[in-house]
Amino acid sequence: MTYLWLKAGHVIFVIFWMAGLFMLPRYFVYHQEAAPGSPEAALWIDREGKLLKIILWPSLVVVWVLGLALAMSQGFFAQGWFHAKLALVLGLSAYHVWLAGYARALARGERRLTGRHLRMLNEVPGIAAALIVVLVIVKPF
Ligand code: HEM
């Protein structure tokens, strides 16, 4: 029973985390259309900071803590599907950290990527999430 409650909590925070990962690069696209130092750019800096602080960072921590607790309680560390899932979630976490760095660079007025590249990058969490869900539900190996 406790296991199922932990799993429910895990999936709820996965949804929050993924929502944030999809939203932030969208914000970047709109932010980059505003001139550096303009009042509109300041608004986007504020929105990005809030999204990271209120949604993204807390969700990352809760997803990891609950996911590792689930894995330890069932001994999933010895199973192939779990290794593949871990590799993908490490990749998603690295993407998260990179996005946080991009937000700081944008706040300094740097525009490292074009809007088109940011939109293409937004496919990353969708593909990773689809693979993770297949691994965790089908457990193919
Ligand atoms: C961040 C590190 C993560 C760890 C350590 C982790 C670990 C786990 C574990 C051990 C389970 C229980 C599997 C079972 O009971 O069969 C689970 C369930 C689940 N995880 Fe994760 N997970 C993580 C992140 C994610 C992410 C990023 C997603 C989706 C994008 C995700 C989606 C799910 C889903 C949908 C389930 C429920 C599967 C089911 O009950 O059939 N997890 N996770």
Keywords:
elongated; mainly alpha; 141 residues; 0% strand; binds protoporphyrin IX containing FE
What does this structure look like?
By secondary structure, the protein is mainly α. The chain has one domain. The protein is built from five helices and no strands. Helix 1 runs antiparallel to helix 2, helix 1 runs antiparallel to helix 4 and helix 3 packs antiparallel against helix 5. The radius of gyration is 17 Å and the shape is elongated.
- The topology string of helices and strands comes to HHHHH
Number of helices in the DSSP assignment: 5
The set of bound ligands, ions and cofactors reads: protoporphyrin IX containing FE
**Strand count:** 0
Largest sheet, strands/sense/barrel:
none
| Spatial gap, N to C terminus | 26 Å
- Residue stretches low in confidence (pLDDT < 50, at least 5 long) are none
Helix content: over 70%
Rg to the nearest angstrom? Answer: 17 Å
| Shape type | elongated
The pLDDT mean sits at: 97
Structural class computed from helices and strand pairing: mainly alpha
Question: How would you summarize the topology of this molecule?
Answer:
Elements: H1 2-32, H2 39-74, H3 80-107, H4 115-121, H5 123-138
The structure holds protoporphyrin IX containing FE (HEM).
In short:
The chain has helices spanning 2-32, 39-74, 80-107, 115-121, 123-138. It is an all-alpha fold.
